Amino acid sequence: MPRAAALAALLFASLSACQPAQSAPAAEKAAPPASTPEKPAAKPAAKAPLPKDALVLKRAKITDPGIIRKGNALTILVPDGWTTRGGIESKNDFCSEFFGVNWTAASPDGQSTFLIFPTEGWQASNTPLQSTCMNASFQSTGDYLAARIQYMYPGANILGYTPREDFSRDAQEFSRRIQQMSAQNGLNMQVWADGGEMSFSFKQNGKEMHGMLAATTQFYVSSVYDPWGGPPMQSLTAATLGTFGATAPAGELNAKLAEAVRRSVTPDADWLKEYFKITAQRGQINVQAAEERAGMIVAGGAAATKANIEAFRNMTAATAANGMPDPIKTGSGGTVSYSSEASDDRQQRESIEAVRGVETYYDETGEQNVQLDATYDHAWRVTNNDTYILTNDPNFNPGAYDIQATEMKTVK
Prior knowledge:
single chain; alpha+beta; six-stranded antiparallel β-sheet
């Protein structure tokens, strides 16, 4: 991440000694005095480094070429100066979504990356069931990630696995409701979800690298009585609901930065609306489950449902630029509110914020809202480009770093 240079400037003040002019004979004019060389211009003082905890993030878009809706699909914040590639792609995997997010951001030197890899599904059965899905029996996110890492980074060494309840909270609630629906219909089915992140090491061009992959997964195991007297006929169906990853040279993987990037992902409301329209047409969501679709936003996030599309819209809504009334700025508490935001939508938005660990800020310069990592107490918008600075330093003064920025207020 580019940072202000930390080198102290040296001031040079070398003056050339001037030899006094020798006396000239009276009949001759005195020679002009030797000229004094100009003083070299002082080099500007180098800018002080930003606070150690400060993150500088820039808005990027994950686009859809037309798989669901052409244009912006997701918004994400990446470190300033990083490049991005990829987006939404089509899939023929009938065990998971009909689209995938295949996207990567890379540091200027290409050594560090953040990535979102496509979700996928799998099936297993003790019957001769024919399936077009991947044949696998993973029954935990940890087992799935261990296999996925070996596929993406052959020969990688697994360093550890950390369960993330915050990833799977909404998926677990969705699973509980599906379990209840199954029981009410007399089906013998177990439904559950979990999520977590797995760290690993690998070699890249002879260099030691560290990485992390994260996912949320939902599992269905059904059991049916065998009328021929054999053991119960069982089948497993599972699919990842969201994914995220990061890689960097050993010792340089910044977990706080990765978390801030992951949490910033926000879906475009119009893209979500079209997604639900297509899935309903395809019959992939039954009527009872349509309002509770656990479409996780990246590795965990809140479920994207038909009921909370407006909540996602309010997370990134422009104000006057899109004909919405200007926000009402309130008191000295550093918050803003919208008179047009319905109470139910606001509650939905705040619920999603809590699940995802983000805070919604009003970006007055860009006339839009932006979601940022809630573990930072102060958020600033750089006024001359689409960049944000997060810091916990209450005394942060962007002017001291030759940065023009405005502190943003939270949306309540």
